[in-house]
Amino acid sequence: MTTTAPVPPIEAATTALRVVNPQGAPRRRRRHTPQTIALTTLLWIYAAISIVPLLTMVGNSFRSHFEIASDPWPIPRNPTFDNYIRAWTEADFAGYAVNSVLITVLSVLISTAVSLPAAYALARWKFRGRGAFEGLFISGLLIPFMLAILPMFYMMDFFGLIDDKLSLILIYSANGIPFTIFILVAFFRNLPKELEEAAMIDGASHVTVFWRIMLPLVRPAIATVMIFRFVPIWNDFLMPLVML
């Protein structure tokens, strides 16, 4: 009885690559049509126009007030950090930055942690009323956030959370759950059921399947929803103005 020696992974991958794309095979080149050239040119022009205000802001931040008033070009001739020092010391920018980081990070983490098991249950489990629960979560996307400011203000006032960062954390976390569940359910449903079945046959529990198998597979979706929730919370001004 003879046995064949196992092929090393690197050699096997190299052999497969040669089969798919043998040496000497011609490679397709992208054709630059007039339409693609015109579209690319317009996109570059738009990108250049969009980045000019940002570069102007950054350049002027290193200039004095006299230099900004006398020279319109945002190129610092004598760069200085006085503006940053004044903003950090006189305007208490450090306290504002800490508040923004704390509220944003905790809100994103809480909404994601709550939405992950809920989205997994809605996408992978079959139970009575699943469609109603999913519709209830999705209906949260139909309610304008600004329309609920007054009810949320009275609710936070009832619990004594006005002028408290916890009020913003709770509001942002609850507001992000419908969108997060909507995205995660779509990702969970695209995963093959054979992974769960194989794990359950090996004796894995539902918690193990969710934590060890499903979560690593939906990491792109988790990163997506966290970014999409981080940006609007970080940029929001009206809700902190009302609650704090």
Discrete helix count = 12
For the terminal residues, how far apart are their CA atoms?
80 Å
The fraction of residues in strands falls at: under 5%
Count the domains.
2
**C-alpha Rg (nearest Å):** 27 Å
Largest sheet: none
Low-pLDDT segments: 1-22
Classify the fold: give the CATH topology of the largest domain. Answer: MetI-like fold
- Which CATH class of the largest domain applies here? Mainly Alpha
Helix and strand content put the structural class at mainly alpha
Mean pLDDT: 83
Share of helix among residues?
over 70%
CATH superfamily (homologous) name of the largest domain: MetI-like
Number of strands: 0
Shape: extended
> What is the succession of H and E elements?
HHHHHHHHHHHH
In the CATH hierarchy, the architecture of the largest domain is Orthogonal Bundle
